[in-house]
Structures are given as structure tokens and as C-alpha cells.
């Protein structure tokens, strides 16, 4: 999933802030996964600029699905 996320990050770099965490990389990653109640890797959460969660998915996802969700979030702003 990393190449897909990296490609989307490049594509939307002027509109979207991307953050990546690994629950296995120490206390920060563990805390994020716990606080967001994420079940495992990979997990995807999209928030509005106001911090409202508008999309959540777990597991392997097609790039087009993530793209559609990002586009919908941007259009709603």
C-alpha cells in the first residue's frame, strides 16, 4: 500500500496533509492506533480540515477507492 499512498500524497500534496503511522514503531504509533481504535494494518482514515472523520477502512484498498474518497472530501469543503 505504501507506493499507492505515496503516489496519492504526491498527487494531492497541495490540498491534503497525509500522515502515516506504524503501530509497531513505538509509543507514538501505538497511541494513534489505540486512540483511533484502528484494528491493524493497513488502516485508512480521512478527516475534514475541521477534524471530522468522514471515511474509515481497513485492509487492502484499491487506489481508485482512496482517490474517490479524497476527492469527495475535497468537494465537501
Describe the secondary structure blueprint for this structure:
Layout: H1 2-11, H2 27-35, E1 43-47, E2 53-58, H3 63-76
Antiparallel strand pairs: 1-2
Helical content band: 40-55%
Q: Decide which structural class fits the backbone.
A: alpha+beta
Question: What sort of overall outline do the alpha carbons produce when their principal axes are compared?
Answer: globular
Secondary-structure element sequence? HHEEH
Name of the CATH class: Alpha Beta
**Average predicted local confidence, pLDDT:** 91
Largest sheet: 2 strands, antiparallel
Kindly give the count of domains: 1
* CATH third-level topology: Glutaredoxin
Taken as a percent bin, the fraction of beta residues is: 5-15%
Say what oligomer this is. Answer: single chain
- Ends apart, CA distance between termini: 26 Å
Low-confidence blocks of residues: none
Number of helices: 3
Q: Please provide the count of β strands.
A: 2
CATH architecture: 3-Layer(aba) Sandwich
Mind telling me the C-alpha Rg?
A: 12 Å
- The strand order across the widest sheet is 1-2
